[in-house]
Design goal:
There is one protein chain. By secondary structure, the chain is of the alpha/beta class. The protein is built from 21 helices and twelve strands. The strands form three sheets. A six-stranded mixed β-sheet has the order 6-9-10-3-11-12. A four-stranded antiparallel β-sheet has the order 2-1-4-5, with no helix packed on it. Strands 7-8 form a two-stranded antiparallel ribbon. A hairpin with a 2-residue loop joins strand 11 and strand 12. Helix 7 packs antiparallel against helix 9. It is elongated. The two termini are 67 Å apart.
Length: 576
Amino acid sequence: MLRLLRDRLRPYRRQLALVFILVLAQAVANLYLPTLNADIINNGVVKGDTTYIIIVGGIMLGVTLVFAIASIVAVYWGSKTAMAFGRDVRGALFRKVESFSLSELNRFGTPSLTTRTTNDVQQVQMVVLMALNVIIAAPITVIGGIILALRLNVPLSGVILAAVPVMGVFIGLVVRKALPLFRGMQVKIDRINQVTRETLSGVRVIRAFDRTKYEERRFDLASVDLTDTTLKVTRLFALMLPMLTAILNFSTLAIMWFGSLQVANHGMPIGDLTAFFTYVMQILLSVLMATIMFVMVPRAAASADRIQQVLDTEPTINDPEFPAENVPVRGLVEFEDVEFRYPGAEEPVLSGVTFAALPGETTAIVGSTGSGKSTLINLIPRFYDVTGGKVRLDGIDVREMGRQELWHRIGLVPQKSFLFSGTVASNLRYGNPDAADEELWHLLEIAQGGEFVAEMPEQLEAPVTQGGANVSGGQRQRLAIARALAKRPQVFIFDDSFSALDFKTDGLLRSALKRETAGATVIIVAQRVGTIMHADRIIVLENGTIAGMGTHEELLKTSETYREIVSSQLDGDQAP
């Protein structure tokens, strides 16, 4: 936690110095007031000197004004600094997560990353806020109070020397037991987020299979698990406050008892006893306030560790130190003896894959489920890096290119078409922010989406919910295709992007795409043979290796795997 605070609060050194000065002024003023009050009692009230009371009372009002102003400004700047700290940590986490490859994203998981960016940051931010408003003032008040109390009466100060260590030991024991529980709480919050996310995303499947009660039980288990841990922590801290209050009250009682004896024996003026009592109360209340804040520290420490784990994780895929420059823009994609295996896997998903996708041609990839089709095309934009061999774009290994330059040349339509919340136009302009409305309509016509968009009341400004949940699967695919076309890249990758389209729409879309993407490299991954049978080159994958390569007619003669795929989908007169 200290490392996170040190690194992220460094830019705010001036603000922290200002807060410290203001808190110091606040503490000094607060400590000076009992002395003035003692002077009024000893020299004004006892001697009946009204003029002295008015003068010192005026000074007390001035000190109180300084105390109020310092308190207000300190709270303002402390809050502003804490909020800026939270903003910076959230931004750093978001930028770090954006740089992660799919391996790191899969390792942490979406629910955990969401919790770390929101709840965990909030926990640390609240501790920073409380620290700037309480923790800085507490030691100043305690140290100053002890010094002034000793100056007034050394024997009576023994009460402080007895009470403060007892409070410190008790607080240390509670915090030590609470820290592992708080770590567990954050993990269980991750689990709540995961179950909630799955339930909301899969609500149709849950209802279709009549598993509502099962999901309710699954959520209840996660919720009860979190509740039990929270109750353990709450019970632990429920013991702390009464114990500390008891110590405070016993200390007060001891001071009143022994102090009154000294006053009765004329060993201590009544004003000094009042001031001493005020100092002790300030000391113990400062410790008590710091203790209440320390209730938050264990949870914040656990959250800070989780945040630091993300910030310390180095992405496995990075830009090269000296990226290739002046790379020719053609769109040639080459695979050379490519091997890939997922982290920790014993067997490679792909092995010995060698082929080229040429500009102006359509290269199709087909194969059974699990044959490695999507994994293969994920290697082109470096969502994963090959573990053997090379993937080249325009003659340059993609690992030697800057990722921004690489992604600029590729237009990808993923297997699961994803749309962002906004409008139809904002989603299409994700591929080209400067595209005019006329161009967007043209792209929609190519993607066979112009008709259904025109039927929407707002047309291009029609709202799109998160993930495109308010449009059908086929409409999502067509909007995603139009978005990729708007980018005008050199390489188009369609990862099973026509699966939700009927045969007629599929045929019309492919015909329009062929005209629109003339000169570009087109790579299509598909399960449906009708989608790829007219491709210039078809790659047949089987168990991660190339089982055949050629045109539709050539593969019917040379590839048994391809013939099986065709015969399972086409009518008898079209099958071999």
